[in-house]
Amino acid sequence: MGKRAEVIRRPMVARLLAEGVAALDAVAEPGETGRFRVFLAAGTDRALLAPLPGPDCAQALEAREVSGGILYDARGVTRLALAEGAVDVAPTPHERDLLIGRNVLLGFRLEEPAETVADWIGWHVAQHGADGALVVNRAPPETGHDRFAEGLAAALDALGVAARVVVVEPDVPLGKPGIGPETHPFLAPDAPGKDRMTPPDPDPWLAPLGEGLVLEVLNLRRSICALRPGKAWCSWSGIASIRGGCARASARGSATTFAASSTPAAAWRAGVWRRTRRGWKTPGADRAWLM
Q: In sequence order, what are the beta bridge partners of 28?
């Protein structure tokens, strides 16, 4: 019997540290004594953080605004100094060994079936040499994260795809507040008839990604490299918006190669993709993922 797909589930547990200070995750660096990073959610006010560390608090190396959130880089005891008081955090070690050295895909899943995600992974395995994938399951937990992971493993095995897939399962919504689901036609770019549509109700679980800092979480915890919009980023919320690509993960957290072009324009120049009536495809491919 040949190799089988390996689907590994990992939770992403957010925590409310104080009023107005929510952490998406906290990652420890075992190789660097006492160093850790806390990823504070979008909208966090820097004024809530103490400008200088208090007694028995971590030394702040940097507090940098990233995509609306704050990346708090610190060393020492795992206790953050706030403008009023202090709070303990519980960083956990990174797991970069799971994907180091692999050509890795990144995708955000909303409500797409496991078979669709497996087909996308299998296509890039066959066409671009991908052998790993990181899938962020943004669907609400009550929709059945366990069923999706089991279905994904079964679908990959049915396709004969022997890739390692890490499925990250956030326990809080990552979408932009006040916006409807990305799967609704109203949010499709240049959708005709928007003036006659009724905007959908807000849905923070399925809305377009609002917590951009999650890319840094994935980069530093999983060692996926150079993850930026339009690079190794895929959203299945409408096949016409898919952008495929994969990057090789490295221990240093910097990209070494791209195994697939990230945009149709770049791929066209490289001679990798050709345009069809249904989308863009590689020569000899039996399907076209729309771009």
A: 36, 93
Helices (H) and strands (E) in the chain, counts: 4, 16
- Kindly report, residue by residue over 264-276, the tens digit of the pLDDT: 333 332 333 344 4
Residue where one domain finishes, among candidates 40, 62, 93: 93
Q: Is the pLDDT of residue 254 over 70?
A: no
- Which of 161, 84, 170 minimizes the C-alpha distance to 135? 170
Q: State the CB neighbour count (10 A cutoff) for residue 158.
A: 12
**Which residues constitute the domain of residue 60?**
12-93
Side-chain half-sphere CA neighbours of 95 within 13 A: 13
Is pTM beyond 0.90 here? no
Please measure the distance between the N-terminal and C-terminal CA atoms of the chain and give it in whole angstroms.
Answer: 36
Domain count, the chain: 2
Residue of 85, 15, 93, 94 lying closest to 50 (CA atoms): 85
